[in-house]
Amino acid sequence: MEAPIADPQPPSLSAPSSVHPGLQLVPLKCCSPIQKRCSRTSSGLSEMASLESTLPKALPATFMKEITNDFSINQELGRSVFGTVYKGVLPGGGGMIAVKRLAENAPVPFGITFETEVTNLMALKHENIVELVHYCHEAQKKVVQHNGRYVIVDVIESCLCYKYLPNGSLDKHLYDTPSMINWDTRFKIIKGICQGLHFLHKDLNLDTERGPLIHMNLVPNSIWLDDNWVPKIADFGLSRLFGKEQTRMYTVNVKGYNGYMAPEYLYRGEISTMSDIYSLGMLILEITTGEKNCAVSEDRSARKFVDNVHQNLKTDEQIIHKYPSLGPNGLQQVRACIVIGLKCVEVDRSKRPTIVDIVDKLNGKRVPILDLA
Fold this sequence. Notes:
Elements: E1 23-24, H1 33-37, H2 42-53, H3 61-67, E2 76-80, E3 83-89, E4 96-102, H4 110-121, E5 132-146, E6 149-163, H5 171-174, H6 183-201, E7 210-214, E8 223-225, E9 231-233, E10 240-243, E11 248-250, H7 263-268, E12 270-272, H8 273-289, H9 303-312, H10 316-322, H11 328-344, H12 355-362
Antiparallel strand pairs: 1-5, 2-3, 3-4, 4-6, 5-6, 7-10, 8-9, 11-12
Helix pairs in contact: 6-8, 6-11, 6-12, 8-11
InterPro entries: Kinase-like_dom_sf, Prot_kinase_dom
Protein name: Protein kinase domain-containing protein
Organism: Urochloa decumbens
C-alpha cells in the first residue's frame, strides 16, 4: 500500500565552516521573507531560546543515539515510509525533542527528502505546522564486505529534530482506540489541519516571490499531536513550493500513499493545490468516521471507502447512531465535515472546494460550493 511521492529537486545545502566537514547543522535562525511574515510571539521566542540552549552546538549521530536510547522502539512516536520519529530525552533535565531518523531504504533518496524538508520547513511558523529545531546530517566511513572484498563506504545518518509532541502521530489514535477521541477533539483536529493547510496554500502568497506550498503527503501519520490535541502538519520531505503565478506542475514519477492520491495526480502526474485538497478530504472522512481508508491496488483512489461514507452517513439518523451523545451543534459539525470531505474527494478537481471555502464552512459561514444538494 505504501509508496513515496515524486522526486522533488530542492536547492543544495552546505555545511557551516565552523562545523566538522562530515556534519551539517543549522540553528533555527532563518531570515527568509516567509519567516518575517510569520514571526513568533515573544513568549514563543523565549520558549524556543530555552529549548535551543539545552542542545549542544553540534548534533552528532552519537548524540542522537544517546537521547533516543539507541533509537529504541520504546521511544517511538510514529513512523512513515520516510522515517521513524522517536522521543529524544535531553541530558541534565533539559527536556525532550522529537527526532525523526530518515529511513535508508525509503523509495525516494533520503538526501533529497532531507534537503527538501529542511529548506521548505525552516521558515514556516504556524500553530498547526510542526516546528523544526535543528538537524544533523553526518557521514561516517565504515568498512563493509562487498562481492567478497572489504571496501570503505560513506554511511550517512540523517536526523531532523522537532519540538516535542507527546501524543505522536494521528494514525496511532484514529483507528485502534476511537473511544479515546470524542467528537469535540476530532473536530478540533480537523479545524487545525485545515488552518495549517490554509497557511501553506494562501498565507505564503503574501510573499512577493513565492506561491503556495503543496504538501503532497497529507496522511494520518504526517499529522502530529501535542498534549492538547492540537494537530501539526509534518513530513515536508516531498513538498513542492510553487512560484507566485504558478498554479500546477506535472511529474512522470507518480508515487504516493494509496487512497490519498488525487486521480489527476495518479493518472496524469498533475500537481496543484487540489492534490492536497483531495488528500485532506480523505483525512476529514477518516477522522469523522473513525474508519480506515483501506485502498487496494484495484482501487487506489479509495472510491469504495468514499461510497460507503456517502451511504452510511447521509442522514441525521445515521450520524446520531454513530455519535449518540451529540447535541444540535455537534450534529451540525459532523454534517459539515461529511459534506466537506465528500466534496474534497470529487474526481473532477474543478468541483472541489478551495481551502478558503473549507475554513469558512467550518467556521459556520455559508459556502455555495459546499451547500447540501
